[in-house]
Amino acid sequence: MQPIQDNILRTLSYFDLFRYPLTSGEICFFSQTEEPASVIGQQLEQLVLQGLVYRLDDFYSLQDNAQLAERRRKGNMRAREEMAHAAKAARILFRFPFVKGLALSGSLSKNYADEHTDIDFFIITETNRLWIARTLMHVFYKMARLVGRHRWFCMNYYIDEAAMEIEEKNIFTAVEIITLIPMKGEEQINRFKQQNRWTRKFFPGFRVEPGEDTRIKYGLLRRWMERLFSGRIGDRVDNWLMRLTQRRWLRKQDSANLNAKGVCMGMLAGKHFAKPDPRHFQYRILQQYEIRVEQLLQRSEQEPALAR
């Protein structure tokens, strides 16, 4: 099998885990090769002829299931509707002190939503003020839950300006990084992507220009709170909130609590980050991906190579 076909199958294998067929343009975008789109398209058609890939109207999949295409269309339509809510939520969250950048992550950043989809945010804060920002934002989240709006404000991943490079360097985190949709503080989100250029190991065609500094007018309350928690007072409060949260999450992990989606609750908390524990969802996806790729490549070697 040609390397380009191998890369196409790897790309489709990853998104097949989420039952998400891709367009030919998306296959090129997520390809692990810098070959021209025309060459990738030719190899893609050969895979269709070999019966290794299925064309579902405008999409391509490893499954011969037309319902996947319909599911995606409905999900894309709903995602466009959810973007209005996401924009409103971002405007609210950006008013909190020490927040420097906000981006959409999760399924909505891949242009998909269903009735169970939350609006997930990736958040960059000022150095050494992550835990003050996070605590205030999660108090707000508890209030939003009371009025049934909590799914608009799922703040799952925090880093501060001192920890812009992601430690886990794999296809899962690479996909999440390159698909982030900047909502507020675009220059910071772009700097984050620039400082994670290792993603080009997985997606060599991906490029991002460094964001330019822009003047942002913050509200009076935000400016007052940032002044209040500046200096040593802010350092002490931030450290105390970090330790408090660490103890709370350790108790949750020891109890093996599950969230609403049935995933074990776990978070890694450090001075410059607060993120989901990769040992739960992320590692499971990576294991499934490797198994799927191995099975698919074995099958491809057994298929007759048409149009060689």
Explain how this protein is built:
There is one protein chain. The chain has 308 residues and is of the alpha+beta class. Helix content is 49%, strand content 12%. The chain has a six-stranded mixed sheet with strand order 6-3-4-5-8-7. Strands 1-2 form a two-stranded antiparallel sheet. α1 crosses α10 (281-302) and α5 crosses α9 (231-254). The model has no long low-confidence stretch (mean pLDDT 89).
**Structural shape:** elongated
The tally of helices reads 10
Which secondary-structure class do the elements indicate?
A: alpha+beta
Physical arrangement of strands within the biggest beta sheet: 6-3-4-5-8-7
Mean pLDDT: 89
Order of helical and strand elements: HHHEEHEEHEHEHHHEEH
**Rg (C-alpha, Å):** 21 Å
**Major β-sheet, in short?**
6 strands, mixed
Instruction: Give the oligomeric state.
Output: single chain
The helicity comes to: 40-55%
What's the β-strand tally? 8
End-to-end distance: 9 Å
Q: Which percent band covers the strand fraction?
A: 5-15%
Uncertain segments: none
